[in-house]
Structures are given as structure tokens and as C-alpha cells.
Amino acid sequence: MAAKKKKADELGGNLVELGNEEAWLKYRLSVISGTDAGVIARTSKYQSRHGLWLKKTGRIVEDRTFPEDPHERYGPAYWGTVLEDDIRNTFVEDKGLKVVTDPEWSTRIHPDYDWMSGSLDGHVFDPDRGWGVFEAKTAGLWKEDEWSNGRIPKPYLVQVMHYMAVTGYTFAWFAVLIGGQKYKTFLIERIDSFIDALIKAEEDFHKHIVDDVPVEMDGHKEEADVLGKMFPVDDGATVELPKEALEWDAKRLEAIEAERASKELRAQSENKIKDCIGDAAYGVLPDGVGRYSWKGKNRRLLRQEIK
């Protein structure tokens, strides 16, 4: 028997229509989105938890102007948007599954947590399983390894678990176009323990936003960039640092010393290996666990796996 088609309002989560891009962007600042989830779970390479908190509390404003340089303007984000429909259509043709999308400038909200939002690329219907999450992605060829052996990048895994939490769905399909030519699909199953932990972490982060209490800095590289933009020029004054600064200072000095010792240990170990290789090009490690190459004009030492 053919599965009964469901109406749009029967999809998971509560639909909120914002009407236009400006209202949609403003609304996203008041909720935790799927991309925010990856930042909160510390899987983002590009944004820190503290940077996200600053943005959510209005202390920094995201620059949404298009870059003048065409090479920057037509970068990964641009092509990800332009190719989304094509990837979705290819998936429908490939799998024979129906995919529906929400109205433009809308989002889904968790039935119990009105701060938990999800703007899905689509809802996929499997006659045997019901509704699931659909996500269309693009990736550069240099990131192909992140989409291998049935795995997807960690930020996207967190994102889709967040969407499954919002909608109540039990599965998700990813369709990705790698390097503009390689098409792959991935089926991701819901993990309730993962989702429970994620909701708890997001709820704690959201409380920091509501209470206007900063989240602790964790050393993410983006934090230094944000601080530099917030305080671009000094005023020549001197301030008294808090007592906690003594602990920060001690940890900094300890880290500098550990880094120095680590570099010395690495150099010492590499020099011993070079000495053993001598005039040869390669040195094989005992038991065949690997080998080192030390060859070429400048003789750069590299470790290699033995296949």
C-alpha cells in the first residue's frame, strides 16, 4: 500500500515564518540554530563559543556585505547556495524519495524549547520510515577525506543531530557534491544519548545569553581575531588586572615552557633519526611500523606509513 502523503504542517517541529531575510536574521540571533550547535559543541574551526556569545548578545555585528573581490564573493558559501537545488534534485532522482522544503525565510522550532531552531535544507519522506532530515552540502576536493568511510564532518554531524532534536525525526540524509563533480550520499541515524547531551549543552549556553553572562574563553583562534576587532587601538592607559590574572599568567608561562621543551624534544629525536639514516634516503622503523624519508636537495625529514 502506498504511504499516505503528509501535509506541510504535519512535518516535525513548529513552523515559524519570518517573511523576509532581515526578520529571519534578527530572529536567528535570539535562538540556537543548527550551525550554532556545532560551535557550542566545539567542532567549528571558524567560530569560538565566546565569539558566538558576543554575536548573540549584540556586542559584535556580523558583516554581511558582499566582498568586492570576485574570488571572495563567489566562494564556498555562494556555491553552496547556488547548487543546493541541483543537489536536492539529484538526490530525489537517485534515491526515489520525496523531498519538500519549508517556505523561504522560515524555520522550525522545537515543541518544548522555543530557543531551539532548525532551518533544514529539506524534509525527506521514506515510505518505510516516515519523515527525516535532508541536507545538501558542497565541499572542496581537498576536504574529500572528511567525507570518506561513511563519515561526515563533525560540525555537520552535530548540526543534523540538532535538527533531529528539533523535528523529532529518527534519520537524516546528506547529499554532498565534492569538488564540483563527485556526488555522495550518507544516511545518519538518530542517537538519543548524543541529542540529550547536545540539548543540555545548548540549554546551558542559551542561559548565558539570557543572563548576559560571558561564556569562558577556550583559546579558539577566532577569539584573538574578535578581541582585536573589539579593541583595535589602545588609549595609552594602564589598568589593574584582577587576581585571576595571576593564574592566567602562570598558565601562560607554563605553556610557553612546555612548548619550548616540546620543540627541543622533537628536534633532538629528529636529529637522532637523521644521524641513523646518514647517506641513505630512507630509514625503516623496527617491526615495519613506518619509515622516514630524508632525501632531496634540502633533505626534509618526513614520516611515512608502509602500505
Radius of gyration: 25 Å
Low-confidence stretches: 1-9
Find the CATH topology of the largest domain. Lambda Exonuclease, Chain A
Class by SSE composition: alpha+beta
Average pLDDT over all residues: 90
Commentary on this structure:
This protein has 307 residues and is of the alpha+beta class. It has 2 domains: 8-211, Lambda Exonuclease, Chain A, CATH 3.90.320.10; 248-304, no CATH class. 40% of the residues lie in helices and 19% in strands. The protein contains 10 helices and 11 strands. The protein has helices at 21-28, 34-40, 49-56, 70-73, 76-82, 84-95, 154-167, 192-211, 221-230, 244-277; strands at 14-17, 98-100, 106-109, 117-118, 122-126, 130-139, 171-178, 182-189, 282-284, 291-295, 300-304. The strands form 3 sheets. The chain has a 5-stranded mixed β-sheet, sandwiched between helices. Strands 1-3-4 form a 3-stranded antiparallel β-sheet, covered by helices on one side. Strands 9-10-11 form a 3-stranded antiparallel β-sheet, with helices on one face. A hairpin with a 7-residue loop joins strand 3 and strand 4 (117-118). Helix 2 crosses helix 7 and helix 7 (154-167) packs across helix 8. The chain is globular, with a radius of gyration of 25 Å. The model is unreliable at 1-9 (pLDDT under 50).
List the helices and strands and how they pair.
Blueprint (H helix, E strand, L loop, with lengths): L13 E4 L3 H8 L5 H7 L8 H8 L13 H4 L2 H7 L1 H12 L2 E3 L5 E4 L7 E2 L3 E5 L3 E10 L14 H14 L3 E8 L3 E8 L2 H20 L9 H10 L13 H34 L4 E3 L6 E5 L4 E5 L3
Parallel strand pairs: 6-7
Antiparallel strand pairs: 1-3, 2-5, 3-4, 5-6, 7-8, 9-10, 10-11
